């Protein structure tokens, strides 16, 4: 109330001193003054950190340098925009798309493993319990090679989780191996569910197969690799960029093959 009286007094004094026309011009000047511009920032769905456009672009370039050997091109896909009084926040995920030529070359490289024994390993899972090729003998095994900032890896996780639930009553073993360190994987899993049994820090083991991720090995009961697949193709809505389904026929065919 006091503030209103003060403002009214100011207007009266201004009208007396400068005249109504001058006051009108002063008011228009106030209205035309530019409002404080909003700051635009970007936030990855896996991190609370706010990034500038330059930082996001730098990160995408780094991922493209890493993915180039496997023929992947990465781009940031905005999933949601939050508008505040002083800030516009674009939430994004990183998505990678392989070129057709690179995809074929990658598949040829991976197919060389088909018919060979799964290389021996004995590594601890996140709970410290050791997993070895010897302990897996006699069971069908799905081995997913991934890493925590891999866009295609993250994109297929809901589908992998669904398949894992579907096969929960079978003897199929679902393993996820990554070169990322244990602490990084644990932090990731607190934000995103990924139901496979996890083995972290397996850099040497992962590197012998591929530099392109994700890669999934399907191993039969005798320890022989029967199929090797890349990412499960995910379909997206053209308008919302939300996933609408997956082309998982090849994955199911591979699962059937190793259960025979």
From TrEMBL:
Residues 112-260 form the Thioredoxin domain. Gene3D superfamilies: Glutaredoxin. Pfam families: AhpC-TSA (PF00578). Signal peptide: none annotated. Coiled coil: none annotated. GO terms for molecular function: antioxidant activity; oxidoreductase activity. It comes from the Bacteria. This is Thioredoxin domain-containing protein. It comes from Hymenobacter crusticola.
């Amino acid at each position: 109330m006091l503030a209103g009286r003060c403002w009214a007094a100011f207007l009266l004094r201004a009208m007396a001193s400068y005249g109504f026309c001058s006051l009108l011009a002063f008011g228009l000047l106030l209205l035309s003054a530019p409002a404080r511009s909003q700051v635009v920032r970007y936030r990855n769905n896996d991190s609370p950190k706010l990034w500038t456009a330059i930082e996001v672009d730098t990160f995408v370039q780094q991922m493209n340098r890493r993915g180039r050997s496997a023929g992947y091109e990465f781009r940031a896909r905005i999933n949601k925009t939050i508008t505040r009084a002083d800030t516009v926040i674009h939430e994004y995920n990183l998505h990678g798309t392989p070129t057709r030529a690179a995809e074929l070359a990658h598949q040829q490289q991976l197919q060389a493993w088909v018919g060979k024994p799964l290389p021996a390993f004995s590594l601890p899972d996140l709970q410290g319990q050791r997993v070895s090729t010897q302990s897996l003998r006699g069971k069908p095994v799905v081995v997913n090679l991934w890493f925590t900032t891999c866009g295609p890896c993250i994109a297929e996780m809901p589908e992998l989780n669904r398949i894992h639930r579907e096969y929960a009553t079978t003897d199929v073993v679902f393993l996820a191996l990554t070169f990322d360190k244990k602490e990084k994987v644990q932090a990731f899993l607190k934000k995103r569910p990924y139901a496979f049994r996890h083995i972290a820090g397996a850099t040497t083991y992962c590197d012998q197969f591929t530099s392109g991720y994700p890669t999934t090995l399907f191993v039969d009961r005798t320890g022989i690799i029967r199929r090797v697949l890349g990412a499960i193709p995910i379909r997206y809505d053209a308008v919302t960029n939300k996933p609408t389904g997956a082309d998982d026929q090849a994955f199911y065919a591979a699962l059937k093959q190793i259960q025979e």
